[in-house]
Design a protein that fits this description.
Helix content is 79%, strand content 0%. By secondary structure, the protein is mostly helical. The chain is globular and about 70 Å long.
């Protein structure tokens, strides 16, 4: 067996035992596997270099900024009023509560960075509304959980920065290969197809179960919700507009005025800058002014450390393992091994989607992206998949699939608790969503569908 597969098998075994069996945090499992691999490969002398690689990645600090932003947006509840607006608009159509769940939860999931947390927050509104209009409990639970985890592949989700780091950290591409704005446009292009897929499935299930619109007495007033929630609706504009402008006008407007180096510096700083700007805006529009006092904000971040620290820890240790794998030639060896399997483009795409689905049952998606991202991109690119598309799909095949596939599919369990659904029925219904997700992954990676930005 190739040494690369041995290293991967050892790391996977450690993570399964430590995280899944012993129920310890995944960042501990990744760190322990790193230490074991250092010992086995005899590369302790390179440890300072690996640590430097893990800490110097600028995307790590961008991820921290957006994790902090997600805490503010969740705690100040500035998104709740925006969800009410969507419910008032779409709740009048047949199955409207399901469509609201897909749209609102996808948007909220991208901002909150927490799949189960988003299910509990947004689902507390959408799941009761779906049940009242005739959705079976198990279907309501799965619509909400699948929509919430879709946020993992929609900017500014934290998984996005890890995927971009996996691409630009490779020697073949480098930091100048693609800007953050250009990468975000591609991610939105991919996300639109998966949102459409979920909307079509909601429509089909509504027909099958003969779901009705939300009762008029349960619908919020559109005029009232717009009056109370219009400020929350500006959040997507604040977050997304700078990236859109950078994408369309970087080579003309910004380069002419700032120079090539200035335009490049502006693009690279957008992630941190926008996270801070959105956080300030959330504080300014929060209705409960007690939550915006310095002490209250400090307590939000203090309580949120348990959310931020594990994610950042996984990324740091994951980048260190990635640097070790590069040093050991694991990526090249894996590529040689995959080429020896004599698979074509379709076979490799199906195989990797299947592997990430299996790995996602035991390893969180963010960890998969950080540890294996460069390997997956290299393998897919060698078979003709656009490397930018391969990188953009990492949050999907790792982060989204991880969240909806048991036993690690925590979103399903969170949805079950809100919907009061039975495990057996919820699990069977969830298989439809997992299968549809898998098929869409293959279709997109094969380049069958046009993707915005490519």
């Amino acid at each position: 067996m190739p040494a690369a597969l041995t290293y991967l098998a050892i790391m996977l075994a450690v993570i399964i035992v430590w995280f899944l069996l012993l129920k310890r945090p995944v960042y501990e499992a990744v760190l322990i596997s790193f230490i074991i691999l250092l010992t086995i490969t005899g590369t302790w002398s390179h440890l300072p270099s690996y640590i430097n690689t893990g800490l110097k990645t600028s995307l790590l600090y961008s991820m921290t900024a957006f994790c902090a932003m997600s805490i503010l947006l969740t705690e100040t509840k500035v998104i709740d009023s925006a969800i009410a607006v969507i419910l008032a608009v779409l709740g009048r159509v047949t199955g409207g509560a399901g469509f609201v769940s897909v749209i609102a939860s996808s948007f909220m999931g991208a901002l909150s960075g927490s799949g189960p947390g988003n299910v509990m927050a947004t689902g507390s509104i959408t799941i009761p509304a779906m049940k009242k209009s005739g959705f079976p409990p198990e279907l309501a639970a799965n619509i909400e959980s699948n929509a919430s985890y879709l946020g993992n592949m929609i900017p500014p989700s934290g998984n996005i920065t890890a995927a971009l780091g996996a691409l630009t950290g490779m020697i073949a591409y480098g930091e100048d290969y693609i800007t953050q704005a250009e990468f975000w446009i591609v991610l939105w292009g991919c996300s639109l197809w998966f949102i459409l897929q979920r909307l079509i499935m909601v429509f089909a299930f509504c027909k099958y179960y003969k779901v009705a619109p939300i009762a008029k007495e349960d619908l919020p007033s559109l005029r009232k919700t717009l009056k109370e929630g219009w400020q929350g609706l500006l959040l997507p504009v604040i977050i997304l507009l700078p990236f859109v402008l950078d994408y369309f006008f970087k080579s003309t407007f910004f380069t002419d005025r700032l120079g090539a180096d200035g335009a490049k510096a502006m693009s690279s700083s957008l992630l941190i800058f926008i996270g801070g700007l959105a956080s300030i805006y959330a504080v300014l529009i929060a209705k409960d002014r007690k939550q915006t006092k310095p002490h209250a904000i400090a307590m939000m971040f203090a309580n949120g450390i348990k959310t931020i620290a594990p994610a950042i820890g996984v990324c740091v240790f994951g980048y260190m393992i990635g640097a070790m794998f590069t040093d050991l030639g694991v990526t090249d060896e894996m590529l040689t091994f995959m080429e020896g399997l004599s698979m074509g483009k379709f076979g490799i795409v199906v195989f990797l989607c299947f592997i990430t689905c299996l790995l996602g049952m035991v390893i969180p998606g963010s960890s998969l992206i950080v540890i294996f991202g460069s390997v997956f991109i290299t393998i897919l690119a060698a078979k003709g998949v656009d490397p930018v598309l391969a990188a953009a799909m990492l949050p999907c095949i790792c982060g989204v699939m991880c969240g909806i596939t048991p036993p690690l599919g925590l979103g399903m369990y969170a949805g079950m608790s809100l919907a009061g659904s039975e495990f057996g029925k919820t699990f069977v219904n969830n298989l439809w969503w997992v299968a549809a997700q898998f098929i869409m992954e293959v279709v997109v990676l094969m380049g069958v569908l046009p993707i915005l930005g490519l």
